[in-house]
Write a structure and sequence with these properties.
The complex is a heterotrimer of chains A (289), B (430) and C (282).
Chain A (H helix, E strand, L loop, with lengths): L1 H31 L6 H19 L2 H24 L7 H23 L14 E4 L2 E4 H23 L1 H11 L1 H6 L4 H26 L9 H12 L4 H21 L2 H18 L14
Antiparallel strand pairs in A: 1-2
Chain B lengths: L11 H15 L19 E8 L6 H20 L7 E8 L4 H14 L4 E4 L2 H13 L4 E2 L6 H4 L6 E2 L5 H16 L5 E6 L3 H16 L3 E7 L8 H10 L3 E4 L3 H13 L5 E5 L7 H5 L4 E8 L12 H9 L4 H4 L2 H19 L6 H10 L26 E5 L6 E3 L13 H4 L12
Parallel strand pairs in B: 1-2, 1-3, 4-5, 6-7, 6-8, 8-9, 9-10
Antiparallel strand pairs in B: 10-11, 11-12
Helix pairs in contact in B: 2-11, 2-13, 3-4, 6-7, 8-9, 13-14
Chain C lengths: L8 E9 L2 E10 L5 E5 L6 H8 L7 E6 L2 E2 L5 H6 L2 E4 L11 H6 L10 H6 L2 H21 L14 H13 L5 E5 L7 H17 L3 E5 L3 H7 L2 E6 L2 E6 L1 H5 L2 H11 L10 H12 L3
Parallel strand pairs in C: 3-8, 3-9, 6-7, 7-8
Antiparallel strand pairs in C: 1-2, 1-4, 4-5, 9-10
Helix pairs in contact in C: 5-6
The chains are: A mainly alpha (289), B alpha/beta (430), C alpha/beta (282).
Bound molecules: adenosine-5'-diphosphate (ADP) and magnesium ion.
């Protein structure tokens, strides 16, 4: 029982990181119609930037702040320089562009940092606390806490702020929003920026609890199922999907193996696609905020 | 033709191949011999050596030193005029540890861009080309690892220059059990999901039982996993006496992080040769109390005078210590040396068949402190026999050899020939 | 009729889709009168005309000017910010947002705080937001929507939603208001209410209205000037009285369809124009 609870906690912690990445994907997809296949590379890039900035600035905290500022700016730049010129081109071309961007970012990381994994000794402690017979990693609790705070802040931003309203408007009623004077291109830029910010938070959390390697970009491969399972049009769905995938993965790993975990995640994905193609929280026509 | 020594750019690969075709098309200028055999990768002025390695994938930090060792040796040879007047051109294709890429790279060197000899691939990729490699005549001169499928049944084209996993496991289990002085050790193993990992885990399991211990659990760690929390939790729960690990640097580092997360402390760890990498124990300093790797190759910096030529070649190639001061570098260098020896022995008309005849005759090629001597015979292609422990020194970050190769010779069953672990016992160390 | 190019002038406007002339060499200039209408049978090109004015559709040939300024080459949100607002034949609201949020959307063009400052919510941004909400409150009051301010749009009846959309256009404080079938789907009481609302608004503000409407009673009651399109061509332009007696109009439109005013809104139309918007580079 104790180990079951431990695995659930690990799963929620891993899953909240998937959730952060998944929301970024959904947000960009909802507002721009572009599925950003380079999103995972933003996570890896953030983690690597964090190691360089820690070396340059001397303090992990400063480096974290710097990454959370720089990466969203990169996201906005990517929108203006790469995605925007592609808007209105056939979808396949835009998708290929984001795939190409992902490959280019991967190559850039390898050129700048080489193939060796790196370490980030950040402010997140790496020890465990015993609660009764259950041993829980402090970093897991922190990860869950930070993810929850980010998700709440994001929720407030999306539902309460004027930018959030414009973002929802552009996502759901694009023509009407533009003709009401909303500058959609700028809203897209904000979507890319916020998506990149969420990727950066995930990158910082992963750098602190895992190893900084280019493999972190593969995170997107597991966030995609989270997005689909949760419902591609639903922000809450992305969170639910992320956590569900994290927990499924850990339980499958504990009771079968890590390879089985991937199979289980994709089996659930298939089941959802067959039974509820719009995802658990997705809606068919009107999209949920 | 000179290859950029930091070939970490995938884009460089097509350029290399293009350049190579160009070079072989117009190269027939000044040579002592006019012999050429394009289907064997030999022109009048140049010899092609094919290599498939993980340049940008998850195991790159292991394969980069190996690739650099091969290239550094041939760079030095080319600097002295090449082999019998021909320059050696090492063509490296990136396989990112993916089986399909490894297979297509290998096939390319068989016919499309023929090579005189080939080296590379991980154990799973080797399994995938095992049947093909028996069917052609391309000499396949080892890799970092030797997959069981390449050796069983005997493969006349494959020459192993890795310490086999059974060899490593035989010394590892005996040494770790002796170190801890336990009558009934409780051991956990970890492996990545590749052929060598399966082999490692199953041999260790059998040896642990022969030593009177129990294998508590084996955990398979996937490449690219974000964490190994289930494994970390399991180790914290089951409290084994030691961990005997296989993997790649990245998976082992992730594992270390998760062990730390669950408060695991002072765990003795013995690892396969691939994890002889100081960045692994350094990932989570409190977790490990002693960290040993079992290897048949000695990093240049730990081999005394025998390592000096390697360091010189590495510096000439502009390599950093973190790339060359590794056993994989010595291994790559040794593989290149063996290839060069055989090609040189084949004289003025080097063909794949001639090179093979030379390899089959290679006897007691002395490698000093760098590795046990290399010996092949027509029916035994296990070139390296002998493994010793290397102890990680946390203050220097280096691995220091423990004893001589001979001290551990009694532990080896020559498994790939005898197919049996029966002759092994835990008190085999001199 | 005294044409006033400060309002809206269309010259030689042509839009072709493949072989179809959605608009074929249409020219007209609205006079200074306050409410004008475009009528014509289905497929005549009315929505395409609106799309050209709002910048969503790039004409094949011809020009559109408003207030003496060419609208061609401007991006739709820039055109909107010059004081051109529109409503849609099919509702284009956020169903899960409140009435106030939907209407606020039309007000952002009057916000001066930059994006970053808005995100950080400094005192100026907050004051500005309060002002915008007050302005929206005023318009909601005028439209009789004040009690529904915090209701979700999806909970409201169709006729009220139409009003919400109108309110969103009105808070833009437009110089030119384009209404695409504002009365479609309404009962006669709602129609009367809405007509009244439009008339009152026009009286109080410096605004010109151009509307597409099928209900001829509404048109004749509201419009002072009518442009008639048929198969992409302009076949008449004048006062209601002139148009009603034009033999071409009678033949093409009135004779056949005068009675059938309650036609269904074609479902695909918005989807189509949304696609165009994406293609237009936004
Ligand atoms: N995006 C488009 N692609 C192709 N044809 C179109 C498009 N939009 C409108 N049309 C065609 O142009 C003509 C005019 O359409 P429209 O302006 O919607 O007419 P109305 O609004 O007067 O009913 C119709 O024949 C219609 O089928
Ligand atoms: Mg229409």
């Amino acid at each position: 029982m104790a180990s079951f609870i431990q695995d659930i906690v690990s799963g929620i912690a891993t899953g909240s990181i998937y959730g952060l990445v998944a929301i970024g994907l959904v947000l960009v997809y909802k507002s721009t119609g572009v599925f950003n296949f380079a999103h995972g590379e933003f996570v890896a890039l953030s983690a690597f930037l964090l190691t360089s900035l820690t070396a340059a600035l001397g303090a992990g905290w400063l480096a974290i702040v710097a990454v959370l500022v720089i990466v969203p700016i990169l996201g906005v730049l990517v929108h203006y320089l790469i995605i925007r010129p592609m808007m209105g081109k056939p979808l396949l071309a835009t998708v290929m562009t984001t795939i190409g961007l992902g490959l280019a970012l991967r190559a850039l990381i390898l050129i700048l940092y080489g193939p060796d994994p790196r370490q980030f000794d950040g402010p997140i402690p790496s020890n465990a606390v015993d609660i009764g017979s259950v041993r829980i990693a402090v970093s897991d609790l922190l990860t869950i806490g930070i993810a929850v705070v980010c998700l709440l802040l994001f929720g407030l931003f999306f539902t309460r702020s004027s930018l959030g309203l414009q973002m929802r408007a552009v996502a759901n009623q694009m023509e009407a929003s533009i003709l009401s004077g909303v500058n959609a291109s700028r809203i897209y830029a904000v979507a890319f920026g916020v998506g990149a910010l969420l990727a950066a938070v995930a990158g910082v959390l992963l750098a602190s609890t895992s190893v900084v390697s280019v493999q972190l970009s593969n995170l997107a491969l597991i966030a995609f199922p989270a997005v689909i399972i949760g419902g591609i049009s639903s922000v809450q769905g992305a969170i639910v999907g992320g956590i569900l995938v994290g927990v499924l993965e850990k339980l499958a790993e504990a009771y079968a193996s890590q390879q089985a975990a991937i199979a289980v995640v994709y089996a659930v994905l298939l089941a959802v696609l067959l039974l509820r193609p719009q995802g658990i929280l997705g809606t068919r026509e009107a999209m949920r905020a | 033709m000179k290859i950029n020594s930091t070939f970490g750019r995938t884009a460089a690969v097509p350029a290399l191949v293009g350049g190579l075709l160009l070079a072989s098309a117009c190269g027939s200028s000044s040579s002592s011999s006019s012999f050429s055999s394009p289907k064997d990768g030999v022109s009048a002025t140049e010899i092609t050596i094919g290599m498939s390695s993980d340049v940008t994938g998850p195991a790159a930090s292991n394969y980069l030193p190996y690739t650099s060792g091969v290239k550094a040796y041939f760079d030095a040879v080319n600097g002295k005029g090449g082999i019998n007047g021909r320059k050696v051109n090492v063509v490296v294709l990136d396989d990112q540890s993916q089986a399909p890429k490894g297979v297509s790279n290998y096939r390319r060197f068989v016919t499309q861009t023929p090579a005189l000899a080939f080296t590379g691939l991980n154990s799973t990729q080797q399994s995938a080309v095992a049947a093909q490699s028996r069917a052609n005549n391309l000499p396949f001169v080892g890799s970092i690892v030797t997959g069981a499928d390449m050796m069983k049944p005997f493969n006349k084209n494959f020459y192993s220059l890795a310490c086999t996993y059974p060899d490593q496991a035989e010394v590892a289990v005996a040494f770790m059990v002796e170190q801890l002085g336990l009558a009934a050790p409780r051991i956990m193993t970890s492996q990545t999901p590749v052929a060598s990992g399966n082999e490692w885990a199953s041999v260790v399991k059998e040896l642990v039982q022969k030593a009177g211990g129990t294998l508590v659990a084996n955990h398979v760690t996937e490449y690219g996993a974000l964490n190994e929390d289930v494994f970390g939790r399991d180790v914290a729960d089951k409290k084994p006496d030691m961990l005997i690990a296989h993997g790649a640097t990245s998976t082992a580092q992730v594992t270390m992080k998760s062990l730390a997360k669950f408060g695991v402390k002072n765990l003795p760890i013995g690892t396969a040769a691939v994890l002889q990498d100081g960045s692994v124990p350094a990932t989570a300093p409190g977790v490990v109390n002693s960290y040993y790797a079992f290897n048949c190759y000695t990093a240049p910096g730990a081999a005394g005078a025998d390592g000096e030529p390697l360091i010189a070649a590495a510096k000439a190639a502009g390599l950093e210590a973190k790339v060359y001061d590794r056993p994989e570098f010595t291994q790559g260098y040794t593989i290149a040396m063996v290839m060069a020896k055989a090609i040189e022995g084949a004289g003025d008309r080097p063909t794949r068949d001639a090179v093979q005849q030379q390899l089959d005759k290679l006897n007691e090629l002395d490698n000093g402190a760098l590795s046990p001597a290399v010996t092949f015979s027509p029916d035994d292609h296990v070139g390296i026999a002998g493994v010793r422990p290397y102890k990680y020194n946390p203050s220097s970050g280096a691995f220091e050899p423990v004893g001589e190769f001979d001290d551990y010779a009694g532990c080896l069953t020559n498994y790939y020939v005898t197919r049996s672990l029966d002759s092994w016992n835990k008190d085999c160390i001199k | 009729m005294a044409a006033d190019s400060r309002i809206l002038a269309v010259e030689n406007l042509t839009v072709t889709f493949g072989g179809v002339h959605a608009l074929n060499d249409v020219s007209f200039t609205l006079s200074a009168r306050r409410i004008a209408a475009v009528i014509g049978p289905n497929g005549a090109g009315k929505s395409t005309l609106f799309n050209c004015i709002t910048g969503v559709q790039r004409p094949t040939r011809g020009t559109v000017t408003c207030g003496g300024r060419s609208l061609l080459g401007q991006r739709p949100h820039q055109i909107a910010r010059q004081g051109i607002a529109r409503t849609f034949q099919n509702l284009a609201l956020l169903p899960e947002s409140t009435v106030e949020e939907n209407v606020l959307l039309g007000r952002y063009q009057h916000t001066r705080t930059g994006m970053l400052a808005g995100m950080l919510r400094g005192p100026r941004a907050r004051r500005e937001e309060r002002e915008q909400r007050e302005y929206v409150g005023g318009i909601l009051e005028d439209c009789g929507l004040a009690p529904l301010r915090y209701e979700e749009v999806r909970s409201l009846p169709y006729g009220v939603r139409k009003k919400v959309e109108l309110a969103r256009a009105l808070v833009q404080d437009p110089k030119l208001l384009l209404l695409d079938e504002p009365m479609a789907g309404m009962d006669s009481r709602e129609k009367a209410e809405l007509s009244d609302l439009v008339l009152r608004y026009v009286d109080d503000h410096d605004v010109n209205v151009l509307m597409v409407e099928h209900d001829m009673n509404v048109i004749m009651g509201l419009a002072e000037e009518i442009v008639v399109l048929d198969f992409g061509r302009k076949i008449a332009h004048g006062t209601p009285g002139e148009v009603r007696n034009d033999p071409l109009v009678i033949e093409a439109y009135l004779g056949a369809e005068f009675q059938s005013t309650e036609e269904d809104a074609p479902e695909h139309e918005l989807a189509q124009s949304t696609q165009q918007t994406r293609q237009a580079g936004e």
